[in-house]
Amino acid sequence: MLKLTIGKLNIRLDGVEAGQVPENTLLFCSDFQEADLVYTFRFGENPAVGAYPVVYRAKDIVVFGKPGGLEARLLYMPDSHICYAYYEEISEKEINVYVNGAYREHLRIDTIFISLLALERHEARREAFILHCAYMDFGGKAILFSGPSGIGKSTHSGLWCAEYPDRARVLNGDKCLLTREDDGRILANGWPVCGSSGICQNEKREVAGIILLQQAMVNQFVEEKAIRNFKQVLAQTTVNYWNNRYTDSAMNFIEALLQRVGCGTYACNISREAVFTLYNELKGRKWIS
Amino acid sequence: MKKNKDFIVRNIAGETVLVPVGETTQDFNGMITLSEVGAFIWEHIETAESFQALVRLILDEYDVDEQTAAADTAAFLNQLLYTQMIVPDNPQKQW
Predict the structure, then answer these.
(1) What are the structural domains of chain A?
(2) ipTM over 0.85
(3) What is the pLDDT of residues A3-41, one digit of tens each?
(4) Given CB atoms, is B22 within the 8 Å cutoff of chain A?
(5) Tens digit of pLDDT for each residue in A180-198?
(6) Phi (first) and psi of residue B82, to 5 degrees
(7) HEC profile for A88-135?
(8) Cα gap B45→B49, rounded to integer Å
(9) Domain assignment of residue B55, yes or no
(10) Which of residues 34-93 of B touch A (CB under 8 A)?
(11) Total domain count for chain B?
């Protein structure tokens, strides 16, 4: 049995041990009395898949809608169309996860294991959302470099760490979980998946700013219109669009996020000058000190 | 005309956007920003009894000549129909 705290969620995993799950997941081990969610893992058992309506289908997932707003999911290996797991919510708290016995070893892969938990769905219920970004600590606050894959998030955050080794540190190279505190502050939290960066820490920081990266010859920082920032941030946020309630909730969250936190577009090249230019822009706006 | 319920309308920082949800997201990514008149048409599309009635509503609200309003409205409705954001509903209505 394992206990994890990810964002504001306390989850208990029955039927798996520490040696079966990814190392990055173990960074989130904690202790608590009352679990918000209890997952029961079953290896090699055939689930009794109900005749539930399909609400979403993609090459790696089929989502079924169950009565009472519950969900079930068939999960497929992205390239082989082989089903590696069946996820089924029994109640709002209890979840069964049936793992194809042939894929037991694959649970050590971050993305495979976390996909079994449908965490984005449960975090969204608590108004927490996953942002695709390089999550960097700078002087105790979070700077989030966001944008599509390949745009240079890891490269740019790496340049900051090289120029400011005492103040800048990447906490996750690919994702963070955003939460809102009771006092309105937005926090970046660790997330147990970090893409190819290999950098994954379970640490939280108040968000100082979101930088939407673009590639360009000349370095230029622009604070765009609110609607443009909204679209860009939404595009980099994990949203289960098949669920209207959570889609609405995600958009409410991003609106609140952008009212609270600075956000701008930075068209830049890969250079030391790109770091200094942005540093001066952020400092001038008092996003960093 | 009937709005496709798989698009929800939001006002973001003073601008009206349509966001796809539900099954539509399998075929449609991103969101659509509506102009002021586009948002007006979206708001009244279900209640207007006919194309002419919708154009009259636009003429009452905006300073535009009838020919321009009719042409622009027709073009916009064609786009909405093509993307299945609206569908014809009541055959009694004269669309």
Answers:
(1) 2-125 (no CATH), 129-284 (3.90.228.20)
(2) no
(3) 999 999 999 999 999 999 999 999 999 999 999 999 999
(4) yes
(5) 999 999 999 999 999 888 8
(6) -60, -40
(7) EECCCCEEEEEECHHHHHHHHCHHHHHHCCCHHHHHHHCCCEEEEEEE
(8) 9
(9) yes
(10) none
(11) 1
